[in-house]
Amino acid sequence: CARGAYEHTLGYTMDRMQFGRSIASFQITQDMLAQMLSQLTAMQCLVGRLSELLDAGVMNDEQASIAKVFCTVGCRTITSMSRELMGGNGILISNKVARFLGDAEALYSYEGTKQINSLVVGRAITGVSAFV
Fold first, then answer.
1. Which of 2, 17, 32, 93 could form a disulfide with 75 if both were Cys (CB 3.0 to 4.6 A apart)?
2. How far is residue 48's CA from residue 9's CA, in Å, rounded to a whole number?
3. What is the torsion angle, in degrees rounded to the nearest 10, for the CA atoms of residue 27, residue 29, residue 31 and residue 35?
4. 32-83 pLDDT tens trace
């Protein structure tokens, strides 16, 4: 959903006109698009690396939890920024971004929340389980 939100929003900002010009020409829009692409690229790099570790048979639960936290938080951030850049159009059910927002929320909680996954990572870092 992060890639879809970014690509949809990029197209939208190129086409949407305000004050006689594309909103893609506004500094804040360009900054937000750059932040979205940076986050998306970092997420893709992390998942690519974990794929290599999995293929080598050396990926562990902590690495998977780190990736899930990082990527789901990133997905929420990207879809939220997408909605912001689209203004009121971003919340319309007929708009793809509204669906991407819902998908991001589902991914965030599926197979362990951010907090649970953070505890898995914390246990690996400290050697002490916070689970009761």
1. 2
2. 24
3. 180
4. 999 999 999 999 999 999 999 999 999 999 999 999 999 999 999 999 999 9
Check which CATH number belongs to the domain holding 46 and give it: 1.20.140.10
For residue 132, tell me if it sits in a domain. Answer: no
131 assigned to some structural domain? no
Structure tokens belonging to residue 61: 């639960």
Cα separation, 121 vs 72, in Å, equals 15
Known catalytic residues?
111
**Residue 62: CA atoms inside 13 Å, Cβ hemisphere, count?**
9
Q: Is the backbone of residue 112 left (phi > 0), alpha (psi -120 to 50) or beta? A: left
Number of domains in the chain: 1
Contact present, 10 and 33 (Cβ < 8 Å): yes
Q: Which residues, 6+ apart, have CB-to-CB distance to 50 below 8 Å?
A: 59, 63, 64, 67
Whole-structure pTM over 0.70, yes or no? yes
